[in-house]
Task: inverse folding
């Protein structure tokens, strides 16, 4: 007896269609939940950190726009806000004092009230004493160093490495500073200023090696110095072009952060954002500091007081970007 193949009846058709529809709705719901979860993840930063530039405290009378004594109340205000955030760390970009070694004793206890790890950058005004002593006072492991946080590498430079104020007259580095400065002065460079400095060859080699290792680890990088390097400005580090070339050649540097120029500045070149944060010192009562949220594809700067809000996109394809400026 042969068995005929039978077409499904109407009831079977509806059952099949219902199951298919249910499966489709289930897949759609699953996809929607997944998309929503990813969207929520993108909205939440991997971590955030605080940044303060040019506190420059001194028990000194006001000079122009520099309100030295007011830095205490401004730092207290910033500390109260920063401690409301779950910060991975806080960095001050140099010039925590203006002069006099005793100024450290007054201002550092206020800075140390910020919760969590704290990192310091050397600024030109911090050299009330020799480099080794400044490093000890600020609790730094070295004059330049690096550290990692959740797939990001933070590289702290010492842009005072070659300078007249950080080195003893007649020393090898002092002589190198003279050579670099005189070369700039001869060309009429705007940044040929005695309150600027440069990065020496030993530190440049170290920077190159750290960048190479971070690229191999697929880390994104933020470099932090005291002096700006871009755009051209009278406040720039003496060998700004050399530093920029090193940052660009690495291919994984997202941003360069600095202080020194209290007015602030911003520019972008070949996929790297150069952010000059405004000095806390200037103005009688308006503050300047930031909380920076770190996402996988961007940095979001939440500026307080005079500091602007900014979004810095991570540009992973800039090795192919040609110079257009």
Result:
């Amino acid at each position: 007896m042969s068995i005929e193949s039978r077409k499904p009846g109407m009831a079977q058709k509806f059952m099949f269609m219902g199951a298919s529809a249910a499966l489709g709705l289930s897949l759609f719901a699953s996809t929607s939940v997944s998309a929503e979860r990813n969207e929520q993840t993108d909205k939440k930063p991997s971590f955030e950190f605080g940044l303060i530039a040019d506190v420059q405290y001194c028990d000194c009378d006001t000079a122009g726009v520099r309100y030295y004594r007011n830095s205490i109340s401004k730092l207290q205000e910033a500390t109260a806000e920063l401690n409301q955030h779950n910060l991975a760390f806080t960095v001050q970009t140099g010039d925590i004092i203006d002069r006099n070694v005793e100024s450290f004793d007054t201002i550092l206890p206020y800075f140390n009230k910020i919760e969590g790890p704290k990192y310091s950058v050397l600024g030109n005004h911090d050299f009330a004493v020799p480099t080794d002593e400044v490093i000890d006072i600020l609790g730094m492991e070295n004059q330049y160093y690096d550290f990692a946080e959740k797939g990001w590498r933070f590289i702290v430079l010492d842009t005072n490495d070659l300078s007249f104020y950080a080195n003893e007259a007649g020393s090898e580095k002092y002589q190198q500073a003279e050579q670099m400065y005189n070369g700039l002065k001869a060309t009429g460079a705007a940044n040929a200023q005695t309150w600027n400095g440069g990065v020496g060859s030993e530190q440049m080699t170290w920077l190159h090696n750290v960048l190479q290792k971070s690229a191999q680890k697929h880390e994104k990088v933020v470099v932090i110095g005291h002096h700006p390097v871009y755009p051209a400005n009278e406040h720039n580090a003496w060998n700004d072009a050399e530093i920029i070339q090193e940052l660009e050649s690495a291919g994984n540097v997202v941003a360069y952060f600095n202080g020194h120029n209290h007015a602030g500045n911003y520019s972008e070149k070949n996929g790297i954002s150069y952010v000059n944060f405004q000095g806390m010192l200037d103005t009688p009562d308006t503050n300047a500091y930031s909380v920076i949220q770190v996402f996988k594809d961007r940095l979001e700067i939440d500026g307080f007081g005079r500091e602007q809000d900014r979004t810095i996109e991570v540009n992973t394809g800039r090795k192919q970007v040609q110079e257009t400026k």
